[in-house]
Amino acid sequence: MGDRVLDEVDDVGLGDAAGHQVGEDERTRRVQCLFELHVHHCPGRTGLTARRAENTFRNVSGTVKETFGARPTPPAALAAKVRTLAPTMTRSMQRVAEAVAGDPAGSAALTVTGLAERTGTSEATVVRTARLLGYPGYRDLRLALAALAAEQAAGRAPAVTADIAVDDPMASVVAKLAQEEAQCLADTAAGLDTAVLEAAVAALAAARRIDVYGSGASHLVGQDLVQKLLRIGLLAHTHADPHLAVTTAVQLGAGDVALALTHSGSTTDVVEPLRVAFEHGATTIAVTGRPGGEIAQYADHVLVTSSARESELRPAAMSSRTSQLLVVDCLFIGVAQATYDRAAPALAASYEALAHRHAPHDRRDRR
Known about the structure:
- This protein is 60% helix and 7% strand.
- It is of the alpha/beta class.
- It has three domains: 2-68, no CATH class; 75-160, Arc Repressor Mutant, subunit A (Orthogonal Bundle), CATH 1.10.10; 189-354, Rossmann fold (3-Layer(aba) Sandwich), CATH 3.40.50.10490.
- It has a five-stranded parallel sheet with strand order 2-1-3-4-5, sandwiched between helices.
- The protein is globular.
- Keywords: DNA-binding, Transcription, Transcription regulation.
- It comes from Streptomyces luteosporeus.
- Residues 76-152 form the HTH rpiR-type domain.
- Residues 200-341 form the SIS domain.
């Protein structure tokens, strides 16, 4: 349902009958009207739960505020936003985004027609890309690009790191990866909603049981979170078997927390157990690079991650793991702070239990 509403979002931002732009509150009101129309009049929607309806509207209205918001993206944050949103764009929009991020000065000098011709797209695609990046129109994007170019020329903003080539020397690989990882972490930190993060921490700290879902690289991040939570005395589980994840999700309910890690926001083996946990009353958290993805419909709290540009030698799973680990560490530290009286002695006990395994061999031999 969220996708159907988002398909009509462009019409929301077109303005009133006289052609004047409408404000953010009016745009959100119009989206809510579209949303209610789909909820109440579309066949098969009668079973939509109030929580899922609220989550869907939250994500749809958030997309509208981001796309048509009255507060444009600051120039310094433009490149970060391009890196974050590019994987969610169509291929034609990606070409526009890559052009403005790679050459802000050159792009700022082009008209909307000129940029469309340079990228092999249409004027409408250029305008849609500008809106997705947080600008009312292409004129506002050009101004931001000019400002970004000036900052880069003054040395205040790093250039977008180039992809790693097959024949790059190791020193270049190290430098490029270090830059990409640092930028990925900075982008994720800048985009994290601390209010949502605090709500997720509160839910985890009070949870009777915590189940964590992830697939592939995201499963490894989930394992990292689970072992951290176990060491401070919380009951946490993660399952590599997706069938087991679903069957255990059935056992969750009020007072439990289910947390899903999926960069794409649409991995079936991750979405399904979170949906089951959601439907059984557990508090649900999603850590994803696609806040408008399917996973968000079943998440009470959505934490958004960034990732570096995907390339042949560096798939999205590699860079998304870096930002996921940052979010996981933030959640863990927040929970440890909230449960310090219990967490501190539990952590000390776990250190003590393993201390002999880290002792020098001669010391262990004397025992």
